[in-house]
Amino acid sequence: MTKILLLSLIPVLLGNSAGALGALLPLIIGGIIVLGIAIGSIWAIIKFFR
């Protein structure tokens, strides 16, 4: 929860460069989701074959 709050405060703290971060934020969120799916899949495969 604090990560989400921190991410929402970063553009305010950065000021002028907030536009670039706003463009990158969906990419970062997508990356985190994909990483979570990948880790979950690997964990499930290991769990299944043991």
Q: Any overview of this molecule?
A:
The protein is an all-alpha fold. It is 90% helix and 0% strand. The chain is built from 2 helices and no strands. Helix 1 runs antiparallel to helix 2. The longest helix has 32 residues. The chain is elongated and about 50 Å long. The N and C termini lie far apart (34 Å). The model has no long low-confidence stretch (mean pLDDT 78). Keywords: Membrane, Transmembrane, Transmembrane helix.
Topology summary:
Layout: H1 2-14, H2 18-49
Keywords: Membrane, Transmembrane, Transmembrane helix
Transmembrane segments: 32-49
**Computed CA radius of gyration, to the nearest angstrom:** 16 Å
- Helix share, percent: over 70%
Major sheet characteristics: none
> How big a fraction of the residues is strand?
under 5%
SSE order, one letter for each helix or strand: HH
Structural class: mainly alpha
Tell me the number of strands.
0
Give the distance, in angstroms, between the N- and C-terminal Cα atoms.
Answer: 34 Å
Unreliable runs, pLDDT <50, ≥5 residues? none
Keywords: Membrane, Transmembrane, Transmembrane helix
Short description:
Keywords: Membrane, Transmembrane, Transmembrane helix. 90% of the residues lie in helices and 0% in strands. It is mainly alpha-helical.
